[in-house]
Amino acid sequence: MVNKTHPIRRICCIGAGYVGGPTMAMIAKQCPDIDVRVVDINEHRIAQWNSDTLPIYEPGLTEIVQQCRGKNLTFTTAVEESIRNADMVFISVNTPTKTFGVGAGRAANLEFVEKCARQIADVSEGHKIVVEKSTLPVRTAEAVKRILSNSNNNATFDVLSNPEFLAEGTAIEDLLDPDRVLIGGESPDAIQALVDVYARWVPRERLLTTNLWSSELSKLTANAFLAQRVSSINAISALCEATEADVDEVAAAIGSDSRIGPKFLKASVGFGGSCFQKDILNLVYLCEYFGLPEVAEYWEQVVKMNDFQKKRFVTRMVRTMFNTVSDKKIAIWGFAFKKDTNDTRESASIYVCRDLLLEKARLCIYDPRVGEQQIRQELEYVFAEADGELSDSKRRLIHDHVTVAVSCEEAAEQAHAVALLTEWDEFAKLDFAKVLDSMKKPAFLFDGRNKLKNLDLAKKGFEYYGIGF
Ligand code: UDX
Ligand code: ADP
């Protein structure tokens, strides 16, 4: 039984992914007296968490896992037993956009969340606090509560919403020093129990408590606002390219207004990641559901602008390269959706590669953290998604037109062009004279992140194009 006099001793987190893994590692590090168990149905993933090579790349994560694993941090496939023994259960499973049925392409697929709730209801005894960590549409807690109320063993539950705001690549910093931790719920005791966990390392004034629905909606809104900033500056980047303006100068000028602020104004080839698009589409679906088509349309435009930015990048490449890239070798530098992560979900690279392949370009892809199998899988998936299934011709297209390199230099060898799509720091440290030497001339370099803008590559012999200037 959990109440004020019985602090949390055992936590179970369902889902050992990009959110569950790092978050639980941080809780284990900060709370040595709490036993933290991270469970997943994916045996391979759990084996990786128990090995020297973790399934996700995140600076600083390995050290924390090594410090706590085998002490108070366990990764296991023993889902039921871990749920049964826990005082507090986090649900941190994936909630992808639905690809079928009602709300396809917009609504979140809550199948995995519902399965978790049913499993918790089936195996629990006594009282437990269930915490929604995955990003969920507003009022999901209601469904979770109803499922939990049909427990097998007369167990009782409090449901909290505790959305995660960490960004990949900086997850450890974000978890260690969050701007805020949001806890939504109805039961003051349950809220207090979770506040007490975070209060071990997060200053009290940054622990915000709200009602359940505000907490759920705040997560979608935060991501929608962040993505909106990127789409806004990207929209301006198109105008900059048509005029003599420079988008980075515009961003610096507007960002120095303290009401606007300088962050999240970096024009790019387009935002990616598992959250932004999914959460906005989710928001759009909710607005439509609640009879607010104008609000839905307003937010949908953020995603449309992002799609336009990715398409625009490819169009500019093709136009610049004499209107054809057919049979030309193009080096793709970067496949992850941002630097310092091996995550490729919704990466702009996938869509740029797809459109270049449709133009019959030959791609040679390099990413420091993403391997060949993952790259091929993403490309097969994006073609399969468009056509309903992966046709033989698309399978052949990928097979015949994609190679994967082990370095930037190898990818650029004899290439007509380089497309830099992820802002990995190592890309700015190359010997560009050597790269130029190995490429066909004119040597085109399309910088989708303005990462090499200050290196004067035009003066060094490249045909250099960035975003928004
Ligand atoms: C985001 C939110 O930041 C985080 O709070 C939430 O918990 C999950 O979603 P994440 O997707 O990990 O985090 O990465 P983020 O740093 O937000 O970047 C998202 C995308 O936007 C990336 O593709 C990034 O390259 C792009 N981006 C970001 C820009 O193109 N320009 C910017 O100025 C900022
Ligand atoms: P996120 O980025 O939200 O963390 P991930 O896809 O990286 O998402 O991780 C979610 C994890 O949840 C996956 O490893 C998946 O296997 C796991 N998972 C999904 N459903 C269940 C379930 N019912 N029980 C246990 N684990 C689950």
UniProtKB/TrEMBL annotation:
Substrate binds at residues 164-168, 219-223, 259, 266-272, 337-338, 449. It holds the Pfam family UDPG_MGDP_dh_C. Keywords: NAD, Oxidoreductase. NAD(+) binds at residues 15-20, 40, 45, 93-97, 134-135, 168, 275-278, 345. Coiled coil: none annotated. Gene3D superfamilies: Cytochrome c1, transmembrane anchor, C-terminal (1.20.5.100), NAD(P)-binding Rossmann-like Domain (3.40.50.720). Residues 331-454 form the UDP-glucose/GDP-mannose dehydrogenase C-terminal domain. Its EC number is 1.1.1.22. The active site is at 275 (nucleophile). It catalyses: UDP-alpha-D-glucose + 2 NAD(+) + H2O = UDP-alpha-D-glucuronate + 2 NADH + 3 H(+). Pathway: Nucleotide-sugar biosynthesis; UDP-alpha-D-glucuronate biosynthesis; UDP-alpha-D-glucuronate from UDP-alpha-D-glucose: step 1/1. The keyword Flavoprotein does not apply. GO terms for molecular function: NAD binding; UDP-glucose 6-dehydrogenase activity. The keyword Oxidoreductase applies. GO terms for biological process: UDP-glucuronate biosynthetic process. Signal peptide: none annotated. Belongs to the UDP-glucose/GDP-mannose dehydrogenase family. NCBIfam families: NDP-sugDHase. Catalyzes the conversion of UDP-glucose into UDP-glucuronate, one of the precursors of teichuronic acid. This is UDP-glucose 6-dehydrogenase.
